[in-house]
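Re: weekly structure request thread

Next one in the queue (103 aa):
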Amino acid sequence: MPFIPREELFVCEHCGEQVNPLGKGTYRDHCPKCLYSKHVDRDGPGDRLSSCLGLLEPVSVDQESKKGFVIVYRCLKCGKTSRNRAAQDDHLLDFMNQHSNIF
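Done, posted below.
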């Protein structure tokens, strides 16, 4: 399924932060403060076809040669795991410091 670009303002359901779109041709689907996301896509990024709608908990951060830092998620409702590229303004260091036992 092709990527469906969506530039949407949202309020994080985990920490309450108001999250603004990134702009500049990139798209945000997670909170830069706590890194949580929501399980809204089913077949591909931006499709908004998931009926789960559970919170996606960040469980780790990986580094990939082409994508840079990638956040690994696990859905708190259905258990699905997924990965997403981190944004430049994400609080990755805060997350890694809080979860230093997994790195």
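Residues 87 and 95 are 14 Å apart (CA to CA). The chain has one domain: 10-102.
Next request, please.
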